[in-house]
């Protein structure tokens, strides 16, 4: 009994000593981690204040994102439900992204808390990401590049994670931060370019499938799929609209595919494979949709397959369901192959990478409050200042005075009348210095439309014509480049577009102007304006567009009329529009 009591006493002493050593070690580690239970209230206060300041600094970016998510939001004559549902949006999933990121963050918090272990390296990288993100945001606001400002938010949040809790915190919460990429819309110019290419890729592929697999003698010309004539020689053709390009489903499916890759049962590189598979799956699904539309138009009715037709609307929903079914099938195939080859390709854990993150409990790390708060306050002030459009050129009349009211084209004198743009268009352009003039020949119905949109100090005064035309209901059937010898030793490269709306075709020639530079590249114009502004030079920019109606399918005649107008007027625009 004595020996047992003595042994028990020794064990109790050893246990007490180990507890004391653990307590001392924990106290020693707290400064290294930068964590303290005592400061939880202050840290929570700092967290919410920081998020509020970030929202204020990015207010203009968030507002522009909202308008891209809900294009009809500014239409005051609509009800709230209509403003949220109407419009041609490619990012209807946008509002879900931050909510999903918050949900994932809450799950991670319940799982591992807020692990913190700041080091000198993590602090340096944190300040680098935080500072570069702030700088990128300010430059983007000055240049009016919304999507770059949206991406800069990712860098700021990532840098804040490193500053706040070091590598453990960043490793735990990188996923919800990276998910925010999916809420940032691409520029409309990129959307229009991708739309055009994907539309013809899907259309030509569907035509090939219809010919080779189903034996239907169809062909594609422009945006139209021409089918064999119906009974009585009735012409049958189907228009491949922008919604048929598959870009909308491609963007949305990439986001939902990333969510699927997070929650699926595949593991490791197979998750990445499923994420990357979302792109070809979306394209394939859209090709199948257009093929089905062609089959319905051929065997049943063009009206049913046409826009607003019953099958057309239903197929838009089914294509997304079909794409998700393919992703689930791929996951099932991976699991079955893993069982067949006795490979461990499955992982039923949700966010299994968190098992490698050391859990320190629900301890909120300390942070350098004044420095970060001060940087965010300065960022807010600069953002408001840089985002406020200058009104110096809102009511100027430089564009109107750039060209004469009468012009000689093909030996005929054309008079002109000036017209006004809709108020909504002027709000979007953020400039009222424009010219919308129609030159008409008194002898016949020939006419040329000239649109000049000029801004002396606002880069956002010009927009891609493809975006504006498609927003007005026109379908682009052709795009190309045309070189015009305007003056001796001055060839100008212009972009030509052919559009169709309700059976009416139009021929368009346009070029961007930035200082003394004429270019067909919207990106080059915007970059030139921005660099000229930084260098203190002329930061004015303009869009010059010539439109001629195509009558009786005479595209060459409309092109010659537009080229004649360009040769006669573009030299005056070069000299007077500054």
Q: What are the salient characteristics of this protein?
A:
single chain, 578 residues, alpha+beta, 3 domains, 9-stranded antiparallel β-sheet, 3-stranded antiparallel β-sheet, 12 strands
In words, what does this structure look like?
The chain is an alpha+beta fold and 578 residues long. The chain folds into 3 domains: 33-184 and 358-387, no CATH class; 188-349, no CATH class; 407-576. It contains 17 helices and 12 strands. The protein has helices spanning 2-33, 40-57, 59-69, 80-85, 96-112, 120-143, 146-179, 188-214, 247-263, 269-299, 302-305, 310-340, 369-387, 423-429, 465-471, 522-534, 555-576, and strands spanning 219-221, 224-227, 236-239, 407-409, 412-419, 434-440, 447-455, 475-487, 490-501, 504-514, 517-519, 541-550. Strand 2 (224-227) and strand 3 form a beta hairpin. The model is unreliable at 26-40 and 361-365 (pLDDT under 50).
Proportion of residues in extended strands:
15-25%
From the spread of the alpha carbons, the general shape counts as flat
Number of helices: 17
What is Rg?
31 Å
Structural class: alpha+beta
Please report the distance between the alpha carbons of the first and last residues: 105 Å
Helix content: 55-70%
Low-confidence stretches: 26-40, 361-365
The beta-strand count equals 12
Number of domains: 3
The residue-averaged pLDDT reads 83
Q: Biggest sheet: strands, sense, closure?
A: 9 strands, antiparallel
Helices and strands, in order, run as HHHHHHHHEEEHHHHHEEHEEHEEEEHEH
């Amino acid at each position: 009994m004595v020996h047992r009591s003595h042994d028990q006493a020794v064990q109790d002493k050893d246990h007490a000593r180990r507890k004391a050593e653990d307590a001392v070690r924990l106290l020693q580690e707290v400064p290294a981690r930068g964590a303290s239970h005592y400061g939880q209230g202050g840290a929570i206060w700092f967290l919410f204040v920081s998020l509020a300041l970030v929202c204020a600094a990015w207010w203009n970016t968030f507002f522009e994102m909202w308008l891209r998510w809900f294009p009809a939001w500014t239409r005051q004559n609509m009800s709230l439900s209509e403003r949220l549902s109407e419009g041609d949006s490619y990012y209807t999933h946008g509002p879900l992204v931050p909510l999903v990121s918050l949900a994932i963050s809450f799950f991670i918090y319940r799982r591992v808390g807020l692990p913190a272990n700041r080091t000198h390296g993590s602090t340096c990288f944190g300040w680098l990401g935080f500072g570069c993100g702030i700088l990128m945001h300010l430059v983007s606001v000055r240049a009016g590049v919304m999507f770059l400002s949206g991406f800069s938010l990712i860098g700021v949040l990532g840098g804040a994670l490193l500053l706040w809790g070091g590598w453990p915190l960043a490793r735990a919460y990188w996923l919800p931060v990276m998910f925010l990429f999916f809420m940032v819309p691409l520029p409309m110019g990129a959307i229009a370019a991708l739309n055009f290419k994907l539309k013809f890729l899907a259309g030509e592929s569907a035509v090939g499938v219809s010919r080779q697999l189903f034996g239907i003698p169809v062909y594609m010309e422009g945006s139209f799929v021409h089918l064999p004539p119906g009974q009585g020689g009735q012409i049958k053709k189907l228009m491949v609209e922008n919604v048929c390009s598959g870009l909308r489903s491609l963007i949305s499916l990439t986001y939902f595919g990333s969510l699927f890759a997070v929650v699926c049962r595949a593991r490791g590189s197979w998750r990445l494979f499923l994420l990357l598979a979302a792109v070809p799956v979306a394209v394939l699904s859209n090709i199948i949709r257009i093929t089905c539309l062609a089959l319905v138009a051929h065997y049943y009715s063009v009206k049913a397959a046409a826009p607003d037709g019953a099958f057309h609307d239903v197929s838009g929903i089914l294509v997304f369901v079909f794409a998700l079914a393919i992703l689930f099938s791929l996951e099932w195939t991976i699991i079955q192959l893993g069982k067949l080859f006795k490979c461990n390709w499955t992982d039923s854990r949700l966010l299994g990478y968190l098992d490698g993150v050391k859990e320190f409990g629900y301890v909120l790390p300390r942070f350098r409050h004044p420095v970060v708060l001060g940087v965010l306050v300065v960022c807010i002030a600069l953002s408001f200042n840089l985002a406020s459009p200058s009104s110096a050129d809102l009511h100027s009349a430089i564009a109107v005075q750039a060209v004469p009211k009468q012009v000689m084209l093909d030996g005929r004198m054309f008079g002109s009348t000036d017209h006004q743009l809709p108020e909504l268009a002027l709000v979007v352009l953020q400039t009222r210095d424009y010219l919308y003039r129609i030159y008409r020949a008194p002898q016949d119905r020939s006419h040329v439309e000239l649109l000049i949109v000029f801004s002396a100090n606002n880069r956002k005064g010009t927009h891609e014509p493809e975006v504006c035309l498609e927003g007005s209901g026109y379908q682009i059937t052709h795009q190309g480049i045309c070189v015009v010898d305007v003056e001796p030793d001055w060839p100008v490269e212009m972009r030509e577009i052919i559009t169709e709306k309700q059976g009416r075709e139009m021929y368009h020639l346009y070029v961007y102007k930035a200082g003394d530079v004429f270019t067909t590249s919207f990106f080059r114009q915007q970059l030139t304006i921005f660099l000229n502004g930084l260098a203190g030079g002329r930061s004015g920019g303009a869009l010059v567009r010539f439109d001629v109606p195509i009558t009786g399918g005479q595209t060459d005649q409309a092109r010659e009329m537009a080229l004649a107008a360009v040769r006669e007027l573009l030299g005056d625009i070069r000299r007077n529009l500054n």
